Amino acid sequence: MQMENFAPFMFGALVFIMLIGFPVAFSLAALGLASGFFAIEMGWFPPSFMANLPLNVFGILSNDLLLAIPFFTFMGAILEKCGLAEDMLDSMGQLFGPVRGGLGYSVIIVGFILGAITGTVAGQVIAMALISLPVMIRYGYNMRYATGVLAASGTITQLVPPSLILVVLADQLGRSVGDMYKGAWGPSILQVLIFALYTFALSIVKPHHVPGVPKEARTMSGWALWVKCLRGIIPSAILIFAVLGSMGGLPGIDTAIATPTEAGAMGCVGALVLAAIHRRLSLQLLWEAMVGTMRLTAMVVFILIGSRVFSMVFQGVDGAKWVEHMLTGLPGGQTGFLIVVNIFIFFLAFFLDFFEIAFIILPMLGPVADKMGIDLIWFGVLLCVNMQTSFMHPPFGFALFYLRGIADTLFKEGRIEKPVKSNDIYLGSIPWVLMQLILVVIVIFVPQSVTMFLDKEQKIDIDKVKIEMPEDPADAPKPDADLKPGEAAPSAADQEKAAAKAEDDEQKKIDDLFKEKK
């Protein structure tokens, strides 16, 4: 086997081991080590290449940016259990309830707000389903719409800052986390508007699918209701501003006063304060949050180690060149490249977690996108929009799994009268996946949806650049003070002749010195 044929073989083996279901981190490490020793045996690179692997892995893990992951995870775990979701869904549901589709609007808005302060999908889907699904079923909402809006609104957190995947994407693409967060705000808002527009259209076409809540079912109204709404929104807004604003992750804020790690630590303190305000802060809550943080962080670290072992060997056998030649030859230039990559990522998300895609696939695609002149912030946010769908489609749509489990629990507890069919959950997710794909298309063809919130780059016109050299004192015009009375200042031509004569005289002196020495 020739070395140029080994990179495609490694890529095919990568796809195979990802499909067999064995833990990806260990599969990647095993494939990378086996391929590396085979390459040494074939003489493609020396044994010292693999000897650098421990230092390489240690260098990746010593990246300070990765410390932001446990901080943001812990913050989200605390906020999942502090009662904020319950209060916001209850108040928003009563505020929008009388309107057709009002419960759907409240789920979408609360999903967006919770996504901006928690950053975790699992807790958000579970919390919203526990509270809103019985209410939506009770007032006659279509089952497929109810399950779809709950699952899709939970996945918004994947895109809304401070999403964990945006931290990982920024690290892998070598870009600022603050800029990645700024770029994600445009698509996040567009996603909410698309979901709301679909709900509005459904309320007109099929009003019986999203009926309004009867006024007699409202337990609060007037100023008391607004106070309850603001009690959930204002503390959340303060926490969002403190965390994202301090690291330059909000539109209009150009200066960062904290690193992502410091901002995450500050977010943890804010989450503890919110939990205390809602009287939910306890040792049990802290223990559960720490255990959840430990598990997710350990998973990320092992995936990172395995992907690093594989990618180091893959690059050693010129895999990066193979990927570059394959993708840069696609028709359509940048647009063709982005379309093919997003189709590939969409189908890959059927089998891989978003962390696995970011650590395994992105190192192959990022350099190619950079060489093609694609803004890497735009590229990263685009992939993040696409990876939202990994939570919504089978066979590993985790948001649907969470919803399935919660629906069974609610039926067993008697909170809903009839069981929710798996058929309704999966068919109900289809319109929302299509809306997420519509957003992918918008971001591809309208990059300003990402870049409009980024700081404007200072563009320099090279043709207008002027380089001014300081004049030699010997060539400077003779000052008027040195002129004799009645003597005119020398012209530019005379000055040139004088300078040339001085140079000739100097050269003549040097020649005379050499003659004397001889």
TrEMBL record:
A GO-annotated cellular component: plasma membrane
Annotated Pfam families: DctM (PF06808)
Stretches of the chain forming a coiled coil according to its record = none
- Region described as Disordered: 469-518
Give the transmembrane region(s): 6-34, 55-79, 105-133, 145-168, 188-205, 225-245, 257-277, 298-317, 337-365, 377-405, 425-446
One Gene Ontology molecular-function label: transmembrane transporter activity
Q: How does it sit in the membrane?
A: Multi-pass membrane protein
Where would I find the TRAP C4-dicarboxylate transport system permease DctM subunit domain in this sequence? 11-448
* UniProt superkingdom: Bacteria
User: What keywords is this UniProt entry annotated with?
Assistant: Cell inner membrane, Cell membrane, Membrane, Transmembrane, Transmembrane helix, Transport
Q: Where in the cell is it found?
A: Cell inner membrane
User: From start to end residue, where is composition biased (Basic and acidic residues)?
Assistant: 469-485, 494-518
Q: Which family does it belong to?
A: Belongs to the TRAP transporter large permease family.
Q: What does this protein do?
A: Part of the tripartite ATP-independent periplasmic (TRAP) transport system.
Subunit (UniProt): The complex comprises the extracytoplasmic solute receptor protein and the two transmembrane proteins.
Which PANTHER family does the protein's record reference?
SIALIC ACID TRAP TRANSPORTER PERMEASE PROTEIN SIAT-RELATED, SLL1103 PROTEIN
**What is the recorded name of this protein?**
TRAP transporter large permease protein
